[in-house]
Design brief:
The complex is a heterodimer of chains A (112) and B (112). Chain A is mostly beta strands and 112 residues long. Chain A has no helices and eleven strands. The mean pLDDT of chain A is 93. With 112 residues, chain B is mostly beta strands. The chains are: A mainly beta (112), B mainly beta (112).
Chain lengths: 112, 112
C-alpha cells in the first residue's frame, strides 16, 4: 500500500526554527513535494526534491533521503503568517500517471 | 494572468441532486486533477486526465464523473450516488513533465 505520515500538529514561537518531518512508503517514487495551505485556501507549492540532499529556498529548506523514505521541511525565522497546514506529497512513478499521494498535513501554529 | 479558476467558491445543493463543479486553466497544461479534502485530512485524488479525451479514476472515484473535451476544461460532476459529498474540492493542473501541480482556489460544496 501507499502511506505518508506526518505529525498532525506542531506549535512554535515567532522567530524560531521548526522542522516538520514526513515519512513515506510508496510502490514507486518520482519526487517529493511540500505545499503550504492556509485555512480555506488552495495549497501553494513550496519545494520539490527528487534527489537526496537539501534544497534551500529563502527561509524554507527541504531535505530528502530516498533510502530512508524520509523528508523534512525546515522553516527558519518563523513569522506569524507561517501559521498554516503543511502538506507532504509523493509523486508516484510515471506509469501511474504521475499522480500525487498526499499526507494528512501538519497544522503549524506560530505563537508570539 | 495565467491560472486555474474554479467556480463558484461556495455551492449548496439538496441531497439527491447532481452538481457539476467547473475547472478551467489557461496555463496550457496537459494534465488536470480533481481532489477532495475533508477537515483534518489530506487531499484524496478523485480523477485525473493526462490528455484531452482521456481520464483515469483516482483513489475515490465512486459517485463522481468527469469529462475532458477541451484541454482547458475538466469539469467534475458529483452524482447522487456519492454518499458523503460535502467537502472542499480542489482542481489542479500540471505540465507533461508533472514537476509541480498548480491548484485552483477550490469549491466548498455543502449538500443539505
Amino acid at each position: 500500500g501507499q502511506n505518508i505520515d506526518q505529525p498532525t500538529e506542531m506549535t512554535a514561537t515567532e522567530g524560531a526554527i521548526v522542522q516538520i518531518n514526513c515519512t513515506y512508503q510508496t510502490s514507486g517514487f518520482n519526487g517529493l513535494f511540500w505545499y503550504q495551505q492556509h485555512a480555506g485556501e488552495a495549497p501553494t507549492f513550496l519545494s520539490y526534491n527528487v534527489l537526496d540532499g537539501l534544497e534551500e529556498k529563502g527561509r524554507f529548506s527541504s531535505f530528502l533521503s530516498r533510502s530512508k523514505g524520509y523528508s523534512y521541511l525546515l522553516l527558519k525565522e518563523l513569522q506569524m503568517k507561517d501559521s498554516a497546514s503543511y502538506l507532504c506529497a509523493v509523486r508516484a512513478s510515471k506509469n501511474q500517471g504521475g499522480k500525487l499521494i498526499f499526507g494528512q498535513g501538519t497544522e503549524l501554529s506560530v505563537k508570539p | 494572468d495565467g491560472g486555474i479558476t474554479q467556480s463558484p467558491k461556495y455551492l449548496f445543493r439538496k441531497e439527491g441532486q447532481n452538481v457539476t463543479l467547473s475547472c478551467e486553466q489557461n496555463l496550457n497544461h496537459d494534465a488536470m486533477y480533481w481532489y477532495r479534502q475533508d477537515p483534518g485530512q489530506g487531499l484524496r485524488l478523485i480523477y485525473y486526465s493526462q490528455i484531452v479525451n482521456d481520464f483515469q479514476k483516482g483513489d475515490i472515484a465512486e459517485g463522481y464523473s468527469v469529462s475532458r473535451e477541451k484541454k482547458e476544461s475538466f469539469p467534475l460532476t458529483v452524482t447522487s450516488a456519492q454518499k458523503n459529498p460535502t467537502a472542499f474540492y480542489l482542481c489542479a493542473s500540471s505540465t507533461a513533465r508533472q514537476n509541480e501541480q498548480f491548484f485552483g482556489p477550490g469549491t466548498r460544496l455543502t449538500v443539505l
